[in-house]
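#structure-requests
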Amino acid sequence: MLIRKLNDCEEFVAGDGTLLRELLHPEKQPLALRYSLAHAIVPVGQTSIVHSLKTSEVYYILSGMGDMHIDDEMQRVEAGDAIYIPPEAKQFIHNCGSEPLIFICMVDPAWRKEDETVYSS
């Protein structure tokens, strides 16, 4: 049995500028998973950097409120929302609320640096 506690996972600034803790990744743990799972935070008033992945991604909002941008679309998101982000879509999220925007990211197949493009602002 493998249980990863959030507070035992090192927090770092991801390529898109979010505060990230990687929970599960098949290249870092002996797991039969296709996907990777991470916990992300965007502080109040902050915006992640525009980026795209060659793979699909899902965000599940745990708390807070944000404006999710995928290609030319924008929608307000909040706790309880699941967002599908297609491969190659340009994406970013803005925390427009009064508390940290906290969400889970699932990337399938698992996230790899070479699959991500970060666009300069």
